[in-house]
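Retro notes, structure queue

What went well: the backlog is down to a handful. What didn't: a couple of records were mislabeled last round, so from now on we paste the full input next to the output in the thread. Example, using Rieske domain-containing protein from Mycolicibacterium agri:
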Amino acid sequence: MAPPTLPGLHDSQDDAQWRTAGERIQTLLDASSSGGAVARERAEQLVREVTDLYGAVLMRMMEVALAADPGLADRFAADDLVASLLLVHGLHPYDVERRVSDALDSVRPYLGSHGGDVSLLGVADGVVRLQFQGSCKTCPSSSITLELAVEDAVRAAAPEIASIEVVAADKDPSAGLIPADSLLTRLRSNGHRSTAWQPVPELAELSDGEVGGFRVSGTTTLVCRMGDDVFAYRDQCPSCTGTLAGAQLSGAVLRCPGCGAGFDVVHAGAGVGGDRHLEPIPVLMRDGVLSMATPQEVA
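Corresponding output:
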């Protein structure tokens, strides 16, 4: 059972405001450049002084709190907002291996929806060693969603790591294993677009079994909710190349309103009775907000 989060913080209406504070601070710093190099330098120094001050105060508060109740370490770590602030100041109560392991646990259900899994082999000298297992139920584009899910979760939990190393699993020709060299490299190779995570809090408003269309960073997506899980796909039917607007779910199968082709939204958009598939777009909970990894054109 997961430890309880801190009361009052995660339920606060202002929670989302503080989660995006870093972006607002960076925007203000960028704006200060208009006053010249000196103005920018002074603004950065001001931020450093304030950050160091609050870091020193947080360290003393952590020492007092954990001395009084060691169990608070679990509660601090379980609250995304508190944990992220502690990470900034190097005060997180868990070591890097524990954080990486917990991060992988958080995305394991998502990997399972793509027929995959991941094991943590260890963390040493800033290098996280992983091994992927399982069958990929669609084309290699599904492995890209796995890459994004795993890398984002690991780097968010342990920003101090230097790199992620994938160790190849023993191959089983009948299982259609996801090749290890396709993971954590595809988004950096030529011919692929880069990605950027965009918060889309509106996704949380979808009800069970509902299908909604969203325009995110210029990309039109179709989003389906199945119970507590949210799945997103590019708005294009691979069979007729038409839009999926108006598509409905029948169980876990999404039917194209144009040609009637069916796709399993739970298993990476695999075609029902055919080899065509939807193009998945990763959706993960990041800093307490559902976010989508949208493709960006490479300059």
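Agreed that this is the format going forward. Reviewer comment attached to the example: Residues 96-192 form a domain with the GMP Synthetase; Chain A, domain 3 fold (CATH 3.30.300.130).
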